């Protein structure tokens, strides 16, 4: 991850341009782009329906992103969803903890 952050800072100065979810957002975009591409290919090059994209997500191989590895269940939901919890500390938002967001 450090290598990615350093390369990003070099390409897009100043370093304050990196928001807390810059790289998570990048991974999310790449996951969706990959699923949409697979859905288009499976649909003979035509624009897919939302359902076809969800089906493509469900059939996706594990994807290695900048922030980690991601995989999806047969419904297109993340296998190991995680949530970050923030709280107000001295009048500012501060990271508190991550939680496992799987149902049950």
Task: Offer a concise description of the structure.
It contains three helices and four strands. It has helices at 2-11, 22-42, 50-58; strands at residues 63-64, 69-70, 82-89, 92-100.
Can you tag this structure with a few keywords?
alpha+beta; two-stranded antiparallel sheet; 4 strands; 3 helices; two-stranded antiparallel ribbon; globular; 104 residues
- Report strand order across the widest sheet: 1-2
Q: Helicity, in percent?
A: 25-40%
- How widely separated are the two ends? 31 Å
Structural class: alpha+beta
Residue-averaged pLDDT, rounded?
Answer: 85
Shape: globular
Strand content: 15-25%
Provide the succession of SSEs: HHHEEEE
The number of distinct structural domains comes to: 1
The radius of gyration computed from the alpha-carbon positions, rounded to a whole number of angstroms, is: 17 Å
Number of helices: 3
Biggest pleated sheet: 2 strands, antiparallel
For the secondary structure, the number of strands is 4
Q: Give the uncertain stretches in residue-range form.
A: none
């Amino acid at each position: 991850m450090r290598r990615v952050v350093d390369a990003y800072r070099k390409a897009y100065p100043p370093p304050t341009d990196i928001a807390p979810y810059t790289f998570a957002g990048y991974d999310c975009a790449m996951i969706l782009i990959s699923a949409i591409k697979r859905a288009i290919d499976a649909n003979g090059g035509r624009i897919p329906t939302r359902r076809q994209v969800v089906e493509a997500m469900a059939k996706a191989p594990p994807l290695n992103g900048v922030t980690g590895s991601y995989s999806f269940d047969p419904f297109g939901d993340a296998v190991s969803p995680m949530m970050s919890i923030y709280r107000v500390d001295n009048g500012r938002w501060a990271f508190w903890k991550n939680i496992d967001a799987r149902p049950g």
